[in-house]
Amino acid sequence: MLCWGNTSFGQLGLGGIDEEIVVEPRDCPFFKGKVVCEVGCGLRHTAFLLGDGSVYTCGCNDLGQLGHEKSRKKPEQVGALDAQNIVAVSCGEAHTLALNDNGQVFGWGLASDGQLGFTSVEECTRVPRNIKSLSEVQIAQVACGFRHSLALSKGGNVYSWGQNKYGQLGLGSDAKSMTSPNVIQSLLGIPFAQIAAGGAHSFALTLSGAVFGWGRNKFGQLGLNDNNDRHFPVLLKSLRSQRVVYIGCGEDHTAALTKEGGVFTFGAGGYGQLGHNSTNHEVNPRKVFELMGNVVTQIACGRQHTLALIPSSGKIDSFGLGGNGQLGTRSTCNRKSPAPVKGTWMLNNGPSGPSAALSDGGQCFCVKKIFAGGDQSFAHYSFSQNSILLDVRVPDPGKHIYTLNPSVIQRWLSHAQGRLPQEIAKIPYF
User: Which CATH number is 2-399 given?
Assistant: First the structure.
């Protein structure tokens, strides 16, 4: 695992190092030999999901966002989740959500706006607790905004809870902060592939690539050609023809990845985080032209910076705020257009073979997954070009809602008239 950016609270997991910022990718020794499936980045804390279903956290713990009382500077296991096989994590400003393999959601950290989904009124919860009001529902995905939370159920419903100051819950302008999950009624019956949450804005992406956004829109981060907040989900007509397959959200900006590997960004651009070689805000989705000619397979948004992975060259491009080293360019300057993250990168599945040694004795990294949030960035790597690369353009069945596949339909159609026998009626929908 490579990491770079702000580490003043220990959020990079590097232990008690002297530096407060790391300006180029550095190997995190803790993760040697471990498989990291997901990284959730809060404002000042980080959660790591390992391949064995365990969760480790590090960084600021003022509000219980680590879920343990151990060291803050290096990753420590969240012991309260020992009995759970966790499959997803997400971090807000100071709260954390974890999803287990049975579709149950656990939350901890700051609770002041109801973002943990508990009806109790504590300021914070320092130990992970199950969100009981979702226990009858199988959840497929969770996403944390700064002070609000979203969940997508296997049945296709989108739930929201927490702060609603800007309409980020999608429940209407009269809805105050919600302490328990509510179904967003206006999205009922739509088959969703992904949910995403920014500082105070939210998105849901359908299986067919339609994009719905709601919440704060001061900088145009909803991509609706204006700066008006939305209290109900609105369809982004401007992206309708682009076949969007993934949405990433920063504090006040948004990035969309298309099936062809193109990137569109919109919202706040004051630090260059949109990658358009300017500091203008964009109220409409605009293609990042400097990434054209490359097929991008992953994007990740930090608070005010953006990362893009280009497997054909093996490199990561970054742009936006750089003051805490989060761009990985060996500089603390902001970048208004994509610039390569420093490192010796190996292209994925390229012709040169899996050699990872350099003539100067250094190492060559084959990046598999990228993550960003707060002012920190991470890249999970392998020394082999032939290991599996995460491509968010390819659907992950484990994170999807129930869908009918062709073989199920064919078995139904081929059955004679009359009642379906149990062995056909109970076929899983995946």
Answer: 2.130.10.30
